[in-house]
Amino acid sequence: MKNLKGKTVFITGASSGFGKATAYKFAEHGCNLILCARRFDKLKKIEQDIKKKFKIKILAFELDVRKQKDVKNKIAKFSTEWKKIDILINNAGLSRGLNKIQDGVLLDWEEMIDTNVKGLLYVSKEIIPLMLKNNSGHIINIGSIAGHEVYPAGNVYCASKFAVDAITKGMRMDLIETPIRISTVDPGLAETEFSLVRFRGDKKRADSVYKDIKPLSAEDVAELIEFIATRDDHIVIAEAIIFPQIQASAMLVNRNKV
Q1: Domain count, the chain
Q2: For the segment 50-85, what is each residue's pLDDT rounded down to a tens digit?
Q3: Is 161 a catalytic site residue?
Q4: What's the rounded Cα separation, in Å, for the pair 183 and 150?
């Protein structure tokens, strides 16, 4: 198992869900953290709590990964110390709406594509050259089972996650002659703010997604990310799909009470 103490981990979308849980998991290993999110008020509280519990260095800042110039400018301003990034977790992502294609909302489409696809590319474009300069690095992209199976009314969200899968594979091919490792983690049903965001704050509708089932937690997914990151350098967990026990595919879920 690889020792991560003192390594620098950059996590996007770190104010909640998988990003937040992963930040705590790497802090346990003694990693220094670069954390960004749109909701800086929530991120600041996480930063303060982690610093108090783990005594590590943290660079936290507000960032909307959809804004390419902001991504470029803010990363360019990192000090030399913070540019030595060992692990990048491309976690920022979201779903908006659950509409048939003919009823799709243009704003929803743009937000999903801009965040899930373009945002991942914008951040990776700035970090990969730093990893090449450091002659090491590991990029872990957070995808979804929606990147492997299309489901009804999932159209554009699924397309964005299929793109994450394709980009991940393309990264691995293009960087094969370098020491940089490329992985993807693709969760199924997980109880985070995902559905609350998808349904724009409609808690009743969001809660119905997880009714009568035991989904994955953010911590479950963070543990898988931790496992992938702690493999020795000659090992790449290229792709990991993680389901709760009651799920067999994107659409097949046992909703009997547990």
Answers
A1: 1
A2: 999 999 999 999 999 999 999 999 999 999 999 999
A3: yes
A4: 21
Show the domain range for 140. Answer: 8-242
pLDDT tens profile 193-242: 777 878 788 788 878 888 889 999 999 999 999 999 999 999 999 999 99
pLDDT at 258: 53
Q: Tell me whether residue 151 is one of the annotated catalytic residues.
A: no
CA proximity to 89, closest of 163, 2, 8:
8
Q: Are 36 and 43 in contact (CB under 8 A)?
A: yes
Q: Which of 157, 203, 204, 214 is catalytic?
A: 157
> What CATH number does the domain containing 131 carry?
3.40.50.720
Task: Classify residue 84: in a domain, yes or no.
Answer: yes
Q: Can you tell me the distance from the alpha carbon of 122 to that of 25, in angstroms, rounded to the nearest whole number?
A: 25
Residue 19 is assigned to a structural domain of this protein:
yes
What torsion, rounded to 10 degrees, do the Cα atoms 157, 185, 29, 2 define? Answer: -150
C-alpha to C-alpha distance for 91 and 183, rounded to whole angstroms: 12
Within a domain: 165: yes
In a domain, 258, yes or no: no
- Distance CA(220)–CA(108), nearest Å, equals 28
Q: CB–CB of 93/146 below 8 Å?
A: no
**Looking at residue 72, what is its pLDDT?**
98
Using CA atoms, how far apart are residues 141 and 196, in angstroms rounded to an integer?
Answer: 22
Q: Are 180 and 136 in contact (CB under 8 A)?
A: yes
12 backbone dihedrals φ, ψ, rounded to 5°: -90, 155
Catalytic residue among 45, 72, 161, 204: 161
